[in-house]
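Obj: model holo form, ligand = iron/sulfur cluster.
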Amino acid sequence: MRPYIREKKSFTFDEVPENTSFEAGYLTTVNSGWRSIRPVVNTQKCVGCEQCYLYCPDGVISVKDGKAAIDYDFCKGCGICAKICRIGAIEMEAERK
Amino acid sequence: MANKTAESISREEFFYGHKACAGCGGSLAVRAALKVLGPNAVSVLPAGCMSAVGFNFPQLCFSNNSIISTFAGTASMLTGVEAGLRARGIKEFTAVGFAGDGGTADIGIQALSGAIDRNDNIIYICYDNEAYMNTGIQKSGLTPFGAKTTTTPAGSNIHGNIRPKKNMFEIAAAHDIPYAATASVGYISDFIQKVQKASQIQGTKYIHVIAPCPTGWGVAPDETVDIAKEVVDCGLWYLAEYENGEFRLNHKPKEFTSVEAYLKKQGRFKHLTDDDIRIITASRDKKWEYIGKNFAL
Ligand SMILES: Cc1ncc(C[n+]2csc(CCOP(=O)(O)OP(=O)(O)O)c2C)c(N)n1
Ligand code: SF4
Ligand code: SF4
Ligand code: SF4
Ligand SMILES: [Mg+2]
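Output (holo structure tokens):
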């Protein structure tokens, strides 16, 4: 399982933690807005070798049923996966708003 | 298609949703190491990019226990974390530090040296992006010769940094540490195996991983992994280990790729002259002569 996005808590003063510690893996904002290009997996070509999964700096690729799948909420569109994939199963496409 | 490296690490992600620049090599190093060490890793991060991008309250991108240390105190905080958990009777944990090159080779070097001297049971990982990146690219002791930073600008007289890169790997080894290694995010399986090995060894472990910063190096975000491979392939970095008092080279390029090609791809080296490149190539050759004499293969 990977961390997931939660409802943003609206803090009142007495809810703010007294010390500086807080719940681990607590995500409130996505990174998808950072992208100008997005990786698209061609599932016909993908052989599930998991190289892209190993090298993604954001850890947003998982291989499901032998095919790479991308969590677009957190992918930043860096393009590393497309370069890593030796058989060209990932292409970077312009982000459409 | 089974991938041996992928099968050997956790499927979970422990560094997720972080705010590092697209294509950040440091974040790949932290992510990969935590997938080796698992949910019981307790990580310590000093001031630097990885703490800045990981802890943005209330967005907390580490899903294992993690804490920010003082800039100089990564290793001393690791000592405390390890001693504290041990005192409470907790056995299943790994105290791991992720510090930048500045945080390691300059400001944190005495704390690291002290921890190695006490042989505290910790893993210290230096993710080396070759400058103080989080404050806007200043030279550190691990910035290589010729690199342009905001504190080593390139002009007509002085062409960027005039000092060579400190040899942190051999400095750690010189303490007679139980385990030290060099790695690169461009050779991720090698790095993962080294973190696995370190996690099985008692005492202090030091891993120095080259982690390109597209922002500070002046390369495109999708170049990170390729450039991290190329620095090894052209011989300006090497993959090695120190164990039981001996150095071992893990990977010997049959033939080096071009140093010039490696340098000229990056904005920080664009200004270098042919003479500068000759100096860099000569220092590479001298280093490899030393490796040939002193490292087992
Ligand atoms: C004692 C102290 N001095 C200076 C700083 C400012 N500072 C914060 S991050 C940073 C740069 C860290 O560089 P490095 O360790 O190489 O990590 P990187 O940011 O490159 O990942 C500096 C100088 C600080 N936080 N504390
Ligand atoms: S690297 Fe290419 S083939 Fe391998 S899993 Fe990723 S997309 Fe599929
Ligand atoms: S573009 Fe970058 S962040 Fe997105 S899936 Fe590929 S490697 Fe990961
Ligand atoms: S400045 Fe460099 S090291 Fe820092 S987050 Fe961006 S890419 Fe990573
Ligand atoms: Mg740095």
